[in-house]
Specification:
3-stranded antiparallel β-sheet; alpha+beta; 4-stranded antiparallel β-sheet; 128 residues
């Protein structure tokens, strides 16, 4: 899973490579979620993450705060969400090339970009 590191810019960061596209997309969803009532936003705001860049199998998120405790709390949250999605993907046999479209309590949807089709799964209490 992701660990605190220091970027080439001297900032606290998480940087990862050799990842499937869905993991990069999921981390980007969490970091870039600006819907203020969302859990993602509430967890990310104190850590001040900044999506610095991505490529085919790599991404870099830098943190614009010196509060290492808040950064570590956010990294733990991201790791928890990635693990949760790994379990859902394994249980429902979701192909690795499908990206997460929506992830809310009780509802996860995935997007098959080849057919432009969305699929919902209901791991908890159902969508709605």
């Amino acid at each position: 899973m992701f660990k605190l590191a220091t970027s080439c810019h001297g900032q606290s960061c998480i940087e990862a490579q050799d990842l499937p596209a869905w993991k990069i997309a999921r981390v980007k969803q969490i970091v870039c979620n600006n819907y203020t009532p969302s859990e993602d936003y509430q967890k990310s705001y104190p850590a001040q993450p900044f999506w610095q860049g991505e490529d085919r199998d790599w991404f870099l998120v830098e943190f614009w705060t010196a509060d290492l405790e808040k950064i570590q709390e956010f990294i733990s949250y991201v790791n928890e969400k990635i693990l949760e999605e790994e379990i859902i993907r394994k249980f429902f046999k979701i192909p690795p090339e499908w990206k997460t479209s929506t992830m809310m309590p009780g509802c996860v949807s995935f997007h098959d970009e080849k057919t432009d089709t969305y699929y919902e799964v209901e791991p908890h209490d159902g969508c709605g």
